[in-house]
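Model it.
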Amino acid sequence: MKKQDRIYTLDQMLKAAKYPVSIDMIKERLECSTATAYRMIADLRDGYGAPIETNESTNGIFYASQGVFELPGLRLQSDEIEALLMASYLLEDIQKGLLKEPLSRLLDNISSLLKEHGIKDKRNIQIIYALFRKADKKIFSSVFTALQESKKLELEYEARSTNQTSTRVVSPLKLTNYKNAWYLDSWCHLRQGIRSFALEQIKSCQQLGEKCKSISKDQLKEHFSGSYGIFSGVANQTARLKISPTVSKWVAKEQWHSDQKMSFLNDGSIFLEVPFNNDTELVMDILRYGENITVLSPDNLKTKIKSVIANMQKNYEL
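Modeled.
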């Protein structure tokens, strides 16, 4: 535990205690030696002006006046600082041309807060974006505004699967960043259902004056947690996969779906079951492990995988 975390924890202990706190309790809570515990007490009392008193009969310590003393500034623990660092990098990425002005002040505040806790240089942390698909900044801004104002949007959308453009009126529900790409999850008034639109495929959008359709939390939860990947919806099939021992240790640490079922077989392989609706992303995840994953069922998924592999082979025929 870092020094700043121990100071913060000791302060919280003394504020919550109804009786004087013993040095043994402090050592256990701060995970430190007797000498370090006394040093933390001295730092809190002398460095921060905490009203610490000692009980003469028990040698326990306590705050002389409860509810008066506060540590200066916002005190964060190490895991909170790590979360702020990650948030800072993600916000900086969004800021690049998308929401620069609104995020500048927020980023400055995060940087100041990190400096207060001794983080002066963020360059020892790196986030690498692979296969990043960039959204047009004007499209992103329009979508973001409509989402915040709960207003319908009219989209000109080009489907990647067909390269055909259609006009959709949608009620924005939320923005999702998934595998380094932005998606607008919306109620599509053409299809009368929830659909996800990749922002880079939106050719134009216009905010309409009408309020968005109201969707219940239960309906959203059922849609976005029911199936596989970004292609959500109520799962109507279950993929049964056998993962070879070669990659089973890697796959065992992956979460393919919140309702997946995984079991190890005697030969070291894994039997994995995942619910799905649209097989597009599931097929891609299966193929990234090549010959190390075998689809056992359903038959339509096996047929799809065979078809993709056959078409791949044609690219290498002499």
